[in-house]
Protein: NADPH-dependent 1-acyl dihydroxyacetone phosphate reductase
Amino acid sequence: MSSKTVLITGSSAGGIGHALALAFQKHGATVFATARSISKMQDLASLPNVHLLALDVTSPASIAAAAKEVEAKTGGKLDVLINNAGVQYVMPALDVDIEKARDVFEANYWGPLRMIQAFKQMLVKAKGTIVNVGSAAGIFYVPFQSQYNASKAAINQYSETLRMELAPLNVKVVTLVAGNVSSNMVNNAPPPTQLPEHSFYKPIEKEIAKEEAFTNMSTSKFAEEVASEVLNGASGRVFKGANSGVVKWLIPFLPQWIFDKLVVANGRGLGKMPKLS
Structure:
C-alpha cells in the first residue's frame, strides 16, 4: 500500500480526476482532491485520507492558497502532482472566438505551468512525480476542436521537455497521453456549438455539435491503470484509454493520405461538408 501524498486538479464527480482520487485513495495514498467548487466532489469527503480543496488553476491566488494548505498538512512535501483539470471547445478553426480559445489555454496549458511552479519546492523535496494529462488529440488532429488539440499538443511537448530538465532534480514527469475515456469534461466546455451566421460550415452545424462516436474506456479502469503505473515509478509518455494503442503504434507510421481519410471519416461530419464549386 502507498503512503504517498497526491494532489489532483479537476476532481469533480463524473470526471477523470474524481476517478483518480478514488484510485489513489484505494492504494493508500493521502489525496488532495481539488476543484473550483468543493460541492462537486463532496462524495469524497467521507473517505479516509482524502482532503478537499477549492482550487482554480487559472487563478494564481487560488493556487497559492492551496499550496500553502498542502505544505502545512504534509510538512512541505508532495509526492505526486496530477495536472488533470481542463476544458474542451468545439468550433471550426475559422470561427473560433479568441477569448474562448484563450480560456482553453488558460486551463489546459497555463494552469499546469502555474501548478508546477507553485509546488516545485515540495516536489523536489519529495523526489516526486508530476503527471500532466495530455491527450491523443495532441497527436491525432480531430477536426473542429483545433484549440483543444493545440493546447494538448503544447502540454505534451512541454511535459516531455520538463521531464528532461527535472531529471537532475530527481523528479519524474509522466506525460499521460489519454485516449477516449468517459468523462464529464464536456460539462465544463463553452455552450453547445452554435456557428456564426456567416460560417462556411453552416451546412453541417448539427453534425459538428454531435459527440464523437468513439468507444470510451471507463474512468475507473483508466484511473486504476494510471495509479498503478505512477506508483510503480512510471516516467515519460504513458498511453492509456480506448484507442490510445492505435495512436501510439499505428498513427506515426500511416501515410498522410490514409491518416487524413480516417480523420475525416470520424471528424464530426467533415466528410459530409459540401465542397465549394
